[in-house]
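Notes taken during the Thursday session

The instructor put the following on the board and asked us to keep it in front of us for the whole hour. The protein is HD-GYP domain-containing protein. We were told not to look anything up and to reason only from what is written here. First, the residues (436 in total):
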Amino acid sequence: MEAVPRRARAYVACTVLGALFCLLPLPATRVSWSAVALLALVYAACEQAAARWRVAGTFYPVLLAGAFLLPPSAAALVALPGALLSRADQRPRLPRRGRRAAQLVLGVWAASAVHGALGGRDAVVASDFPYALAPAGAAVLAFCLVLTALDGGLRVLTEHVPLRRAWRGLFVRSLAPVAVHGLAGLMMAVLWRSPYGPVAALLVLLPMCVSWWAFAQYHRERAAHQATIRALVQAVDIKDGYTRGHSERVGQASMMIARELGMDDERVEVLRFAGILHDVGKLGVPTRLLRKDGPLTPEERRVIELHPEYGHEMVRGIGFLGEARAAVLHHHERLDGSGYPYGLVGTQIPESARVVAVADAFDAMTSTRSYRRARPVPVALQELERCAGSQFDPRMVTALVRALVRDGWHPAVTAQEEPRVPAPPAPVAAPARAHP
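Then, after some discussion, the predicted structure tokens were revealed:
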């Protein structure tokens, strides 16, 4: 775990120790081991199915059913086998599985403790509705709070997210799906304690599995869209050797600006796609113009200035991109109305396009090209600040400056070709010579 900060490793170690502490009362607890074994087996099977379907997330109904049926230590044990055998896409896999297992143990333990303290297990045995809903709801809240608190703390230590934003939106986004899983878990627990027994309880999982399968299909479709995006960007990089890697870095800078502005994670991801795809329309521009050594004629410049419209035509059918499509079309507009393709003014320019415009110009100035060296980051930021209000949105420039002060920036050499005939330095309005 060399890539993980020391503080984050200590945080994970404390989480694991806390989970072990929750399991310590287990030997002295009166437990139905058959229920623990069956629930743990079902949960592990669900995790393996999720890995096979490549669905992100955890199958919470089984864990919450355990919290509603069992004492805290025994309920927490249900999560261990499935979590330790779950999929881990990044290395090191074992510590990541251990961290996730510890989080689930703590979350289930808290849910079971709250549920039991409110008399929930008696209400489950008696099938006492609607009184069984209140303890179950409180248990779901405790489960969500523990998981989001632990996830937010880890974000602070590994992603250097400011404390004021680390937990923003995490609890609210997770509560609705976990509440649905909690209702399914409560139904399982009630049926488990009814004369119908565990077999009837497990039948509750069938509609959940069908919904997971449908979500897996959607996930595959989204992955196919993303693969298409990557292929388009690679095609642009191959066609325009001057800006190889530029799109990925503009996506990164756009994401930094969006986070600094306090946008939620879903919108940050859309802005990253906007940055990655902003130049995809260059596929419609003749290669000879993109690679021309000398200055462009007015006619040639007008042809290149069509690339935002070409790009918009290419991506407008990709529904999940949302406002990223507007950024592709309008990222060369200027606040004073002198940009293209439509000469929009001020707030007529979509916010996503104003973000990408700043990220695009910044990376163009700080990247080494075959015809000029990169400008230092402070010089590039001074130029952006000088043009704020006329060309760039001052809010976006300020957000980028703050993000760079905190996280830094390391531009890479993007052109791997032999040096060509030098060209005069490009102004900020056209930071790349063949990229008006």
